[in-house]
Amino acid sequence: MTTTTGAGAAQAPAPARVESPAATSAVRTQGLTKRFRTGQVAVDGVDLHVPRGAVYGFLGPNGSGKTTTIRMLLGLVRPTAGQVHLLDEPMPAAGGRVLPRVGALVEGPAFQPYLSGRANLARVDAADATVDPRTSRRRADEALERVGLLAAADKRYRQYSLGMKQRLGLAAALLRPRDLLVLDEPTNGLDPQGTREVRTLVRDLAEAGTTVLVSSHLLAEIEQVCTHVGIMGRGRLLLQGPRAVLAERRTARVVVRTRPEHLDAARTVLVRLGLVDVRTEPGAQVAELTAALPPAPVPAGTSAPGPQDVAAALVRADVPLLGLDVRHPSLEEVFVELTGEGFDVAR
Ligand SMILES: Nc1ncnc2c1ncn2[C@@H]1O[C@H](COP(=O)(O)OP(=O)(O)OP(=O)(O)O)[C@@H](O)[C@H]1O
């Protein structure tokens, strides 16, 4: 794994800037696109917005373009088109100034296999021209402690488990205070306890004022710590916003069971009531219809049909009601619906 720490970039004194009122983004992209030489469009016109102070869950199935997007943010991959601003500064032009304020954990070989974890961190630290070399050891040990790796600090990197390697990558990103942390699948290779620790770490860092962009193909792993989410599917950003946008997508469906010969009449009733996405499943004895209920909350002054209205309307239309339920999709189902594939499916 590589840690991009802004190392080597001599930090020019920040010029006096008049911050515009809109200067509140940790990450902002416009039309970010990457077409590889193979012709594959891995990232397709992505407009990311990560507000300052957010924990932004960057979610999507394997192969949906998260890593390529992150690499473009950090200047590791050149975009085919589009713009990137980090901490309200244009990239890559302001990289020398901005990248020291950005810690990153992205995949790729970077650590020396025959050096210990601590010695590897010392190398990363030494490459950062903006820090005091005399306090290197303290920084390394504090970072190792933070990720629970102090006890294994003197072990060689090649003897580390995948989880330990991942922790060392995190430690490298934490060698100095950051305004923005970009973590690509930080829980890869970690056991459930390690995953919980990463979540706690992310929460602590955010509380201390660091904006965190964290990617995952596993919704449940990071959903709990996010204040914002962005969902990728096939190179496109399908949904973005405060975490509540996910809940809003959890449209409940009403499930109606009736006799097969009344299926068409029941369908007409549901459509007349204004329900959408009506699906029918004829059966020999019992036919089933499902339809989307309007999402709550309903705007003031309007009344959206609820399950009781559905029942009443069916009875009025003489449709025998053999059963009526309301089904709420899980967040996982919302994702599958959004991305059009299982959350673990590679392209
Ligand atoms: N260097 C490359 N050349 C050609 N295609 C690439 C290259 N890197 C990535 N891709 C393709 O671009 C698509 C997006 O890959 P990317 O790694 O960005 O997805 P991801 O969402 O990060 O997936 P994962 O969770 O598996 O890392 C994939 O289809 C991948 O095969």
TrEMBL record:
Annotated PANTHER family: ABC TRANSPORTER, ATP-BINDING PROTEIN (PTHR43335)
Name of the protein this chain belongs to: ABC transporter ATP-binding protein
InterPro entries with a match to the protein in the record: AAA+_ATPase, ABC_transporter-like_ATP-bd, ABC_transporter-like_CS, P-loop_NTPase
Alphabetic keyword roster: ATP-binding, Nucleotide-binding, Transport
Membrane-spanning segments: none
A Pfam family matched in the record: ABC_tran
Family per record: Belongs to the ABC transporter superfamily.
Source taxon at top rank: Bacteria
GO molecular-function terms, A-Z: ATP binding; ATP hydrolysis activity
Segments for region (Disordered): 1-24
Biased composition range(s): Low complexity: 1-16
Domain ABC transporter, residue spans: 27-259
